[in-house]
Amino acid sequence: MFSLRAFLLVLLSSHCLFLSMPRALCAQVDEVVVPQTPQAWLQAVHSDIEASYRILADNHPGMVDPQNPSFPKLLDEARQNAMSLAPRVDGPAGYMFAIGRFNATLQDGHAGPFARLPEELDPPSRWPGFLTTWRGDGLWVHHSEEADVPVGAHVHH
Asked: 89, 123 in Cβ contact below 8 A?
């Protein structure tokens, strides 16, 4: 049996060659143990965010790339942003959002943590009534069915 942290490493395994991670590390999980209490979810998210940070800090080429000197700071920001959500994690939805925040900050299409939980734990999708799109450095409303969310509005966080 392995924890979600081990499962997270497997999810990173699709990037093992990119990160030059040992194959043994990538193939160590046979079974996932899903947290059963709010406290266990909180512990899992803390552990997984820290493991993600360490794996990327130890293996991502951006850490030593002279063309990308800001990567170490960005990686630290990704960890801080994810950890800022951690106090509110008490179940699978919060866990997914915190891990997602790490990736959203990092914006690396090749490496990073990705939470995939058993289907029965996936948070339900909800339609907010509008669609957004990235333009330049901002997120803008592209289509809206909500009177108080006009098309062209800039989405702030």
From this structure: no
